[in-house]
Amino acid sequence: MKHLGELIGLVMIGVLSAVFLMGADRVVDVPCGQDLDATVNADDPTLGTRFQLAGGCTYSVDTIVALGNGDEIAGPVGAFIERYPAFDPEPSVTIVASEGLSHVIRAEGTVRLEWVKIVGGTGQYSGGSPEAGTGSGLAMGMATNDSSLYAVHITGSDAAGITNAHGTFDSIELDDTTHDPNFLGFTGSGLKAITEVEVRNSYIHDNQGNGLWCDVYCRDSASHPNGFWIHDNLVVNNGRAGIRFEQVGDVADAGEALIENNEVHGNSPDAARGGISVRDAQNATIQNNRFGAATIAGVAYPPDSRNVAIVASDSGRFDRPDLFNIDIINNILNGETVQGCESLGEIVYCSEAQPPPLLSPTDTTAPTLMSTIPTANATGVAPTTNVTATSLRTCCPPP
Q1: CATH dotted code for 2-378
Q2: pTM of the model
Q3: Cα-Cα-Cα-Cα dihedral of 267, 82, 382, 191, to 10°?
Q4: Which residues, including other chains, have CB under 8 Å from residue 324's CB and lie 6 or more apart?
Q5: How many CB atoms lie within 10 A of CB 357?
Q6: How far is 22 from 379, CA to CA, in rounded Å?
Q7: DSSP-assigned letters across all residues of 323-356
Q8: In sequence order, what DSSP letters do the residues of 278-334 get, joined into one string?
Q9: Among residues 243, 236, 188, 251, which one has the least CA distance to residue 214?
Q10: Phi then psi for 285, rounded to 5 degrees?
Q11: Where do the domains of the chain lie?
């Protein structure tokens, strides 16, 4: 029996080790005070490494942290503040870029980040014009669509929190981006993608530009069968559209959008775009989102600017796709309006039928601090829960 117990123990250690490493070949601990960028950038590029950071530390970097294929960067598991339907992560580790650094982290291949806060990213100029992809906390132009972020907070960048986003973004926070107004209308946003991504259960707020933005054909991703799938998020107080789907269509691999089950409030005071904006784009469904004034987790949010919930519009430009096949159905407007429903049904179809409210607009409950984190996410396993296109989570982050 003793030997059997030892054998079982060894097997369990092996299983847990395999779970912990996920795609990484090894783990490298990076204690407080160690040069993070030097450690990561000197690592063997042929190995996938999980860089485990120490809790309560701030890591200042003066060169871009370059994550390669199979690499992960993680802080200790922390807590969430529940802001229905989002989970607002509270990482205990911060990575801060020095002034002048165009990105804090650059990702190549399949990467994963979890339980870290990323601050900074200075916008660069060429010939007096802003340079695309600069001024971000995380640059993902060379990352794969199987990359993932979980419980990450990105803030304080000149352009976007995440540029050229690829992958799945779960229970993240994006705020206070686009410090440089010259990046507005260019890349200024919490997250900008040109490939289909999924963002779920996330807190997207107080960005100077758009909150979440897929642009320039929003190319198909085989890893994202629901397209640009933005669901179960709290999207509030962004200077431009909370969610924007723009210039998509007319090429074989143009993507599509499914925008559903979001709380969308207080967006677009600086541009007439509404809470959700579809511009010169095709094949999008916008359903079961809630607009209007609301109080969530004790915070009061106003209606979207000009009381406009959704705008579906066509610029008329010959060099951009025509607006087509936009379905706007079963949204809870709470006094806000939808612009674009006057178009022909095959261009924009609108249904006024609305389901019961998902959450009382007079909810005054205080934020709930959550400390129970699913083990799989604590150990770095990518989320694998199958989620239907209309699900709402009311309890906890997905495993």
Answers
A1: 2.160.20
A2: 0.86
A3: 20
A4: 249, 282, 283, 346, 347
A5: 12
A6: 8
A7: PEEEEEES-B-TT-EEESTTS-TTTEEE----PP
A8: EEEEEEEEEES-B-SSEEETTEEEPPSGGGEEEEEE----TTSPPPEEEEEES-B-T
A9: 243
A10: -120, 130
A11: 2-378
The tens digit of pLDDT for each residue in 47-82 reads: 999 999 999 999 999 999 999 999 999 999 999 999
Q: Look at residue 359 and tell me whether its pLDDT is greater than 60.
A: no
CA distances from 301 to 168, 237, 266, 310 (A): 27, 8, 6, 17
The CA-based angle 36-39-43, given to 5 degrees, is 140
The structure tokens 């993070």 sit at 36
DSSP classification of residue 47: S
Q: Which tokens go with 211?
A: 């909150």
At residue 63, φ and ψ (nearest 5 deg) are -135, 155
Please provide the size of the chain in residues: 399
Q: Per-residue DSSP letters for 137-203?
A: EEEEEEE-TT-EEES-EEE--SSEEEES--EEEES-EEES---SGGGTTTT-EEEEEEE-EEEES-E
C-beta of residue 350 within 8 angstroms of C-beta of residue 338: yes
- Identify the pLDDT of residue 369: 73
